[in-house]
Every structure is written in structure tokens, then in C-alpha cells.
Amino acid sequence: MRAALKEAEKARKIDEVPVGCVIVYNDKIIARGHNLKEKKKQAILHAEIVAIQKACKKLDTWCLDECDIYVTLEPCMMCTGSIILSRFRNLYYGTPDPKGGCTDSLIQIKQIKGLNHHPNVHSGILQQECSEILTSFFREKRKKPKKDKSQFKVNL
Predict the structure, then answer these.
(1) Quick one: which of 82, 81, 102 has its CA closest to 31?
(2) Three-state DSSP class for 46?
(3) For the chain, percent helix, then strand, then coil, each to nearest 5?
């Protein structure tokens, strides 16, 4: 989880929501990711998705059933779905997300009947540190004026 926290710090430094993720195979980190959705203007570029894409490329497979995934924040619906579909063995996360978490908070994946696979979920790993990086990031964000989005043009 400390490696995932380092990824979260990378996200914070580029003004992304500080969420980090690492994927472990045979006790070695094979992929790392942090949020890039603001920088790349892609809604799907959450830390988990970035890391999953890298792990799939590294192992040359979509099936990551011998891997464990570590994330600083409880995964959202999109990322939880990707974790399930990638068939991770274990999911470890730091702090819950009461507004968007879909492994334990809003949705409890183990209670969904009919899933052909779900990872073992372990929560609260370095929770204090994982929570603090998010809390301090949003505290600073609230101090800054919001961006005026009226300048953005839509070319259809």
C-alpha cells in the first residue's frame, strides 16, 4: 500500500485526485497507476484502470487471477467492475469512499448473486494515510476559485 500511496502523491503533484494503485504478481509490483483523467481529459483514466492496462500488457493477458491489486481509495463502480472482470485474487484498499465506493460502501460486491468471480476484499490498509492525502487535497481545492467552464467551446 505504501507504493500505492507514492502513486497517489504523483497524482496530487499534477493536480489530480490523489488515488494510487499497484498490482502485484509473484510478490513483485508489475504495474503502477495514478489518476490521469484531468491531465488526459479521459473520464475512465482512474488509477485502477491505468494499472490494470499496464498489468495486462506486461503479462500479455486480460486474466489477472494470480494478481493482487492495492488501491488507496475504495474503487468506484467502473473500477470495481474492471477488477471483477480481470479476475483479481485479492483487492486491498486503504480508505472507504461513502459517496462512490462499490466494494463495501454503496454496493457490497460479495452480496451480488450470480457473479462468476469476485476478489477477496481487504479494507482499511493504511487507512489514516490514504484518507489524509485525499482530505488535504480537497481542503486545498476548496480554497482556490473554481475554473470558469464557460470558455470551453463544443465543436460538433
Answers:
(1) 82
(2) coil
(3) 40, 20, 40
d(CA 6, CA 94): 13
pLDDT tens-digit readout, 85-110: 999 999 999 999 999 999 999 988 88
pTM for the model: 0.91
| Residue type present at position 144 | K
Does 48 qualify as catalytic in the annotation? yes
Cβ pair 75, 33 in contact under 8 A: no
55 torsion bin: left (phi>0), alpha (psi -120 to 50), beta (else): alpha
Given 7, 48, 74, 132, which residue is catalytic?
48
Maximum separation of any 2 CA atoms in the chain, in Å: 49
Phi then psi dihedrals of residue 41, to 5 deg:
55, 45
Instruction: Please write the tens of the pLDDT for every residue from 17-61.
Output: 999 999 999 999 999 999 999 999 999 999 999 999 999 999 999
Q: In what order do the strands lie in the sheet with 28-34?
A: 28-34, 20-25, 67-73, 90-95, 120-122
